[in-house]
Amino acid sequence: MEEYLFFHTRFSAAPAFIFEREQKFTYLSWQPKYSFEIVVDQIRTPFNVGSILRLIDNFGLKRLVHSTSWLQLNHPQLRKAARGCEHWIPVVYESDLPAYLAQTTLPIIGLENDEETVSINDWEVPAACVLVLGNDSYGITSAIRLHCDQTVSIPMSGFKRSMNVHHALAIVCQKIVASCPKSSD
After folding, report:
1. pLDDT in tens, 160-176
2. Do the beta carbons of residue 92 and residue 69 sit within 8 Å?
3. pTM exceeds 0.85, yes or no
4. Less crowded by CB within 10 Å, the N or C end of the chain?
């Protein structure tokens, strides 16, 4: 087990801890590279939440905000997908997402797939924002959508005009990384 931890923490871009040969753990705090906060609206599967946490780590985003009262960071599916990221990525529970979004001063961008959206290809990425992800089946709820300053979509060619939420987030994250300088937060 120790060799496994040593190997993976040596090669991780943002490890939760550094495993030293003397078998001491030095814990590090999360230092995001980009000022993008991910808000999930009714994401129901722990696996998707774990995958989103892993993407937040992979791309150096700020944190995850959710309103799912039953969400447990120790759920086996979440842990399997997150691969340890649940230990260092900040996760915030907000019981009233519309009220939370109403008080933010950052632009609120919804990732949605309908006629009223801007294509990700034409999206002007802000330096910082709150990025809202909706349910795989139903998208972003109307109460949350009212707070979105803009919605962005990913062009698709197939008959199924949707994709898994964490796949969509990966595409948006690549656009963010290609468009924005790293923050100094």
Report:
1. 777 888 889 999 999 98
2. no
3. no
4. N
**CA 126, CA 85: separation in Å to the nearest integer?**
26
pLDDT, tens only, 11-27? 554 455 555 545 555 55
Sign of CA dihedral 158, 160, 161, 163: negative
Domains of the chain: 1-29 (no CATH), 31-179 (3.40.1280.10)
Residue type, 90: P
The runs of H, that is alpha helices, within the chain are 2-11, 46-59, 76-82, 97-103, 142-145, 165-179
Selection from 14, 62, 55 nearest residue 35 by Cα: 62
Are residues 56 and 87 in contact, defined by beta-carbon separation less than 8 angstroms? no
Report the alpha-carbon distance of residue 31 to residue 14 in Å, rounded. 8
What separation, in Å, do the N-terminal and C-terminal C-alpha atoms of the chain show? 34
Could you give the angle at which helices 165-179 and 46-59 cross, rounded to 10 degrees?
10
